[in-house]
Amino acid sequence: MRMYDIISKKRDGFALTEEELQYFVNGVTSGEVPDYETSALLMAIYLRGMNADECATLTDLMAHSGDMVDLSAFDDLSADKHSTGGVGDKTTLIVAPIAASLGLKVAKMSGRGLGHTGGTVDKLESIPGYKTTVTSEDFLAQVSSIGVAVVGQSGNLAPADKKLYALRDVTATVSSIPLIASSIMSKKLAAGSKNIVLDVKVGSGAFMKTLEDAEALAKAMVDIGKACGRRVSALITSMDSPLGYAVGNSLEVIEAISVLRGETWGRLRDVSLALAAEMLSLAENIPSDEAYRRAENALDSGAAFAKMKEWVSYQGGDVGFLDNTSLFTEAKFSHDVLSPCDGYVSSIDAEIIGNAAMVLGAGRETKDDVIDLSAGIVLSANVGDRVIRGRWICTLYTNDPSKLADAQRRVLEAYTFSSDAPPLSPIVLKKIQ
Ligand code: URA
Questions:
Q1: What is the CA(310)–ligand 1 centre distance, in A?
Q2: Which end of the chain lies in a sparser environment, N or C, as judged by fewer CB atoms within 10 Å?
Q3: 400 found inside a domain
Q4: Catalytic residue among 187, 194, 269, 410
């Protein structure tokens, strides 16, 4: 077999066979296929697409290119969720303990943040003592004992994806639905859960800017998961404005705690409940509304918050911070941004807010940047809220005061105002299964 023939076949619009895809993935993983051939095939796939069978086969091969986490000890109860990335998205911190308190087994490997979207592992590291690296034996023992563990990605998970993603990044081939779907799902399959719920974000702060693209990505990922023997569904959720009111690592942990303690309601709580319910619905094969009621009960009864404390404590974190969030270190400098007019907040551009938080130190521009865990933004006026000229709409937090002016300029650009209350769209826009 020759890469030359595989590339020309895809260039001419034909579907690749399992043997051809296997040859490609093996060669990428071992380094035997040179980058120029890989890049050429990626571009051919970008331009010609892939059918559902090719996509599933490619994904399965990528998943098996490295370690496959074995969660078979948990039968059908292992459950994972994945978000395609958004601003202020701290749902894992809420969903994981809800799901675990309902008896699911959440063995979660999460990533670090890059660019304007945050990473769960960074957020968890703002809890003093929390260990994001544990041995695989301890990881599985923890899930077995308390039902939840959230650690950083370790080991050799889907190494073919790592190579392909790096090449896509520099060859303008990232934004291809078959390639995104196979990239995300290869890691989810390798992470081992039987039940997988995908939170596909759509809107200004998301990878997918239109509902049509988000639906196509969701469908491609659900189809791949099912073809590979997993139970999968996807919720398409809005990311036009940041999720909740906090953007930035410790600030988001504090907000998640307030949802788990029943002190904060609204869109973050709604989407977290919908995701946890979907995980339960898949794992126990029960209707979504019944699963939703059980998830709501886990939250309202305090069972989910108790589970979060158990989980954080198991991983070495100081649970005193969960009981008393004023213990979290505050950034040295804060600055209130004032409303320029009277009226209502009609929109808040999530991507611009994410970038403003990054300027304040909350995110990484490159993967080696060190983040400031206490930096970020707390929105006091969200979409639909009434505002008064000269009253504050959000507060900026940073340890570098030279960044405040730039961040304030960005935040004011992100907010738009109207004289009448804007219509509010639902947070969960669609379910794909
Ligand atoms: N996230 C991934 O893991 N892969 C992609 O291709 C895009 C987003």
A1: 31
A2: N
A3: yes
A4: 187
